[in-house]
Amino acid sequence: MADLVLYVGNKNYSSWSFRPWIAMTAAGVPFTDRVIPFDFPAGNPAFRTVSPTGCVPVLHHGEVRVWESLAIIEYAAELFPQAGIWPADRAARAEARSISMEMLAGFRALRSACPMNIRRKRRAIDLPEGVTKDVARIETLWKEALARSGGPFLYGAFSAADAMYAPVVNRLEVYCLTEDPVALGYMERIKAHPAWRK
After folding, report:
1. What is the 3-state secondary structure (H, E, C) of the chain?
2. If both were cysteines, with which of 71, 100, 127, 178 could 131 make a disulfide (CB 3.0 to 4.6 Å apart)?
3. In whole angstroms, what is the distance from residue 64 CA to residue 120 CA?
4. Model's pTM, two decimal places?
5. What per-residue string of b and e applies to 90-104 under the rule 16 or more CB within 10 Å gives b?
6. Is the pLDDT of residue 20 over 80?
7. C-alpha dist (Å) from residue 99 to 71, 91, 141
8. What is the average per-residue pLDDT within 84-92?
C-alpha cells in the first residue's frame, strides 16, 4: 500500500487541517503530515502544487488525491476499517456522520467571529448576532450524544465526530463561550486526549 501523506496548514490555526489530522492521529492511522505554512495574504502558492483546489488539507495516497476534511476522514476510514474512525454501531455511525455534516455546513457565525487559535489566551469578546445560537446548538448536540453513549467522547470512543468538533473545543474555551458543565467536561477530555496533546 502506498504511503499516506497529509498536507496541512498550521494546525494551531487551520481548523480544516486539524480535523483530519487529529482523526487519523487518534485512530493510529499511519501517515506523514507535511505542513505548508500560509505565510501569504491570499494563501501560500505552494498549495496549488499539491491540491486541485489550491487549499489544504489534501491527502495523497499514491496517485489518489482527496481534499476536504470530511472526505479525507472517510477515505482513511475505508482504508483502515478496524481503526474505529466511525462508531461501530450503525445508528450511532449515522448520527455521527449527521452531526459531522452539520459542522461542515453550519455554525458560520461562530466560525466567522471566533477563529481557531490554540495559542490564544482566554478572553471574551463582543459577540455578533448568531454566535450564541450556534453555541447553544453545539451544547445540545454534545449533551445528547454523550447522554446516549455514556461518553467519555461523543459516541463512546474518540471518533471522527469528535475530530470534526475539536476546533470548536478550542473556540469555546479561548473565547469563553460556554459555562455548561457537560460541555466543559467534554472539552477537558478532548484536551487530555494524546492526539490533542501531540
Report:
1. CCCEEEEECCCCCCHHHHHHHHHHHHHCCCCEEEECCCCCCCCCCCHHHHCCCCCCCEEEECCEEEECHHHHHHHHHHHCHHHCCCCCCHHHHHHHHHHHHHHHHCCHHHHHHCCCCCCCCCCCCCCCCCHHHHHHHHHHHHHHHHHHHCCCECEEECCHHHHHHHHHHHHHHHCCCCCCHHHHHHHHHHHHCHHHHC
2. 127
3. 36
4. 0.94
5. eebbebbbebbeebe
6. yes
7. 15, 13, 8
8. 97
Do the strands 64-67 and 4-8 form a parallel or antiparallel pair, or are they unpaired? Answer: unpaired
As given in the structure block, the three cell numbers for residue 25 are 492521529
